[in-house]
Recover the amino acids of this structure.
């Protein structure tokens, strides 16, 4: 009998399983996909690592998490600095002095702050994403770089979205295009799969195995990283997720867009971004591979990439969370098991904390 049945060979499941195996527990890790790695999985084409489920840049300020992940791969010095294309005009992201200069010709931080103040209006406590965005960066940036992108990504108007989503992005009064404020950042040289080969090395792994069609599998405890509402048969109604479809193309050119990530921020372009994968590892292969990312509503059968943490879904989630607390032999974790918009470092942090409490 296994000590743990781990449902999901993504980051949460694999980190937990590795920690359990390290202290002598027997683990079976299952995943319904044909590969481990969850959304970090990479495929190789033209000698380039393709981030199959969307671009993944590792970033954290948690030194324990950084040291942990560095045991399993060597990271390069890639720093994410996406650019935004709005109707053919290029702007630097995140919102910083380069963006402000391009928009308004403001060369000093004081001039840029005065410009934003003049566009801010009188919002004192932002109630939604639109108010939050305008109060942070003013109406021009909201209209050109936020509104269209956000409404495509989330499929609803910015007035109906929670403010925290936009607070993920830094606003800086320096000429600094680094998308993240974290102390550590990079992409594993050779891709993410090696990390999972090492994390899962001492566990049994069964792929193409859906928990719900193999409910007979027995272990002393289960670690579940799938959708929490599905676990409970959606008895309080389904939680909402956003999905994506990826359109990947190989081009007979060495360098298509000069950057790994270009966001298309206008509402009339149907995709949100184009990823040119080779730039994550500074590749100089003769060809290039690009992926257009199209957001869409999640329906049964699609991959649930993003939880929609608005008020209605949060209330519904809390009911599932209360049920989860009564499941003595099941641990819920990860982005889908916790219904949280977690980055990778946060998932590792949660898995390590969980392992510490449990093992
Ligand atoms: P997942 O990776 O989703 O793993 C869950 C696994 O469970 C999946 O493999 C799934 O197949 C399996 N599963 C589900 N249900 C079942 C079932 N019933 N039976 C068997 N198996 C099941 N984070 C960053 O830090 N930096 C980034 O740049 C970044 N970019 C991102 C870009 C995109 C487009 C997306 C969607 C996310 C991004 N993230 C990024 C977040 C990152 O992907 C997550 O933090 C991380 O993958 C979460 O790991 P997880 O183990 O919780 O979930
Ligand atoms: N966002 C935006 N314009 C951009 C990039 C991001 O308005 O060019 C907003 C959008 O609402 C998005 C949020 O900022 O959902 C968070 O962006 P991030 O790049 O962190 O999203 P992720 O990589 O998780 O999809």
């Amino acid at each position: 009998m296994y000590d743990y049945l781990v449902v999901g060979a993504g980051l949460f499941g694999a980190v937990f399983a590795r920690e359990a195996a390290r202290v002598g527990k027997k683990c079976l890790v299952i995943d319904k996909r044909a590969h481990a790695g969850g959304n970090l999985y990479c495929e190789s084409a033209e000698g380039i690592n393709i981030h199959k489920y969307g671009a993944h840049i590792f970033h954290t300020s948690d030194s324990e998490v950084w040291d942990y992940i560095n045991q399993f791969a060597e990271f390069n010095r890639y720093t994410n600095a996406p650019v935004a294309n709005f109707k053919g005009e290029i702007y630097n992201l995140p919102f910083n002095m380069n963006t402000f200069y391009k928009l308004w010709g403001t060369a000093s931080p004081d001039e840029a702050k005065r410009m934003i103040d003049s566009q801010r209006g009188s919002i004192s406590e932002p109630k939604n994403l639109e108010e939050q965005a305008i109060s942070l960066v003013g109406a021009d940036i909201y209209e050109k770089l936020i509104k269209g992108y956000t409404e495509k990504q989330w499929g609803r108007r910015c007035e109906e979205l929670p403010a925290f989503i936009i607070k993920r992005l830094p606003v800086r009064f320096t000429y600094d295009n680094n998308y993240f404020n974290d102390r550590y950042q990079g992409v594993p040289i050779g891709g993410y799969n090696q990390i999972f080969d090492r994390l899962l090395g001492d566990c049994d792994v069964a792929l193409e195995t859906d928990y719900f069609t193999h409910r007979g599998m027995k272990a002393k405890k289960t670690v579940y990283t799938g959708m929490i509402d599905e676990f409970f048969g959606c008895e309080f109604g389904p939680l909402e997720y956003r999905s994506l479809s990826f359109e990947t193309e190989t081009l007979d050119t060495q360098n298509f867009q000069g950057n790994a990530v270009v966001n298309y921020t206008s509402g009339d372009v149907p995709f949100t971004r184009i990823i040119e994968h080779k730039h994550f590892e500074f590749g100089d292969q003769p060809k290039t591979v690009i992926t257009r990312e199209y957001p869409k509503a999640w329906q049964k059968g699609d991959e649930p990439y993003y939880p929609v943490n608005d008020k209605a879904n949060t209330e519904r989630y809390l009911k599932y969370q209360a049920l989860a607390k009564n499941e003595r032999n099941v641990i819920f974790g990860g982005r889908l098991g916790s219904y949280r918009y977690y980055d990778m470092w946060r998932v590792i942090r949660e898995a390590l904390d969980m392992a510490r409490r449990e093992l």
About this structure: Residues 2-78+187-239+308-358 form a domain with the Rossmann fold fold (CATH 3.40.50.720). The chain has a mean pLDDT of 97.
